[in-house]
Amino acid sequence: MTAVNQVPLLLRAARHEVLERPPVWMMRQAGRYMKVYRDLRDRYPSFRDRSENADLAIEISLQPWRAFRPDGVIMFSDILTPLPGMGIPFDIVESKGPIIDPPIRTQAQIDAVHELDPETALPYIRTILQTLRSEVGNDAAVLGFVGSPWTLAAYAVEGKTSKSYTNIKGMAFSEPAMLHQLLGKLADNIAAYVRYQIDCGAQVVQLFDSWAGQLSPMDYRTFALPYQQRVVQQVKQTHPDTPLILYISGSAGVFDLMGESGVDIVSVDWTMDMAEARRRLGPSVGVQGNIDPAILFGSQDLIRDRILDTIKKAGNRGHILNLGHGILPGTPEANAAYFFETAKNIDKLLATV
Q: 266, 246 in Cβ contact below 8 A?
C-alpha cells in the first residue's frame, strides 16, 4: 500500500488534493432513521446515557460505518456535552430537546461559568475517539465536533430550542458586555475541547454554529464571527494541520462571512448553489455538502442526479460530499445506502456522462 493510500480520503480532500471522487459522510448519520439505532434507543432511552457512556456511544458511532462504510465516522455526542464541565447543567428530553434550567440570564450566572478541564469533565471522550480510530483504521477519518460559542450561548440563555431567539438577542442588544463575556468564556473552553478531541484521536473537527444563521450580517460580525475566529486561532496555534469545518443552518445570509472564520472547510446548506458557494469562497477554502436531506425521500434516479450535479459544481479538489443538514428521521435506509453507494462509485458515473 502506498503512503498516499494510507491517508483517509477525507483528509486528502481537506488538503485540496485532486481526487477521482470526493469523500462522503452524512451529518447525523448515526441516528433515528436506522432501525438498529432505534432498537438500542428503546433499551437506553436517555440520550445522555447513550452519548456519555463510552461503550454505547462507540456502538452508535459505528452503526453507520458497519452499514454504509462512509469516508468519515463522527463520534456520537452532542454540542451541549461540555456545558456541565463549565458549570452549566443541562438535560435532553426526548420529545422536547435540550433543557437548561435555570437559563443563563444574569451577570452572577455568567461570572460562575468556569474553565473547562476536558480530561476531568469528559473522560469518556478519549475512550470514544481512541476506539473509533482503532476500529476504522485508515479506511475512514474520525471526526469530532463541538458547538460554536454563539449557538451554545443561545441554548444557555434561551434555556431550550427557540424560534424567535428573543432572550439571547435581547441580551445582545441591551446587555452586550454581559453577552460578550459569556461568549469569550465559551470560546476559550470550546477551543480547549477541540484540542482535547484532537489529542484523543479526532482527525477532523466540525464546528456547529447552528443558530448563527438567525443573525443579521451586522450582528454575525459582532456576536458570532469573532468567537468562531477565537476558537480557530487557538486550535491552529497548537494543531495547525488538523482540518476544521464550520456548519451553519440557513447560512445563505452570512455565507461570505463564514469564509472569514479561518476554518479549512465551509459546510454549505442546500439554500446555496454549490457553484455559487465555490465562487464566493475562492480556491483556498474547501466545501462540504450540500444535498437537501429531503432528496433522500425521492427516487434513486433523483438522488443520483443531485449527487452528480453537486460533485460537478464542486469540482475534484477540496470537496467533501455531505447533506446540507442532518439526515432526517424516517429517511428510508435503502435510500441512505444508495446515497453512499452512488457517491463511492461516482468516478465511474462521471466517466459516462
A: yes
Q: Are 160 and 220 in contact (CB under 8 A)?
A: no
* DSSP H stretches of helix in the chain: 9-14, 35-43, 47-52, 54-68, 107-112, 118-121, 123-136, 149-158, 166-174, 176-200, 217-223, 225-238, 255-258, 274-281, 300-314, 333-344, 346-350
* φ and ψ at residue 214, rounded to 5 degrees: -85, -5
**CA-to-CA separations, 34 to 30, 50, 67, in angstroms, rounded:** 7, 15, 10
* Tens of each residue's pLDDT in the chain, 353 residues: 445 568 999 999 999 999 999 999 999 999 999 999 999 999 999 999 999 999 999 999 999 999 999 999 999 999 999 999 999 999 988 778 899 999 999 999 999 999 999 999 999 999 999 999 999 999 999 999 999 999 999 999 999 988 899 999 999 999 999 999 999 999 999 999 999 999 999 999 999 999 999 999 999 999 999 999 999 999 999 999 999 999 999 999 999 999 999 999 999 999 999 999 999 999 999 999 999 999 999 999 999 999 999 999 999 999 999 999 999 999 999 999 999 999 999 988 777 76
Please enumerate in sequence order all residues whose Cβ is within 8 A of that of 125, keeping only pairs 6 or more positions apart, or say none: 75, 77, 118, 144, 196, 197, 200
Tell the burial category of 218 from Cβ atoms under 10 Å away from its Cβ (0-12, 13-18, 19+). exposed
Q: DSSP letters along 11-39, please?
A: HHHHTT-B-SS--B--TT-SSTTSHHHHH
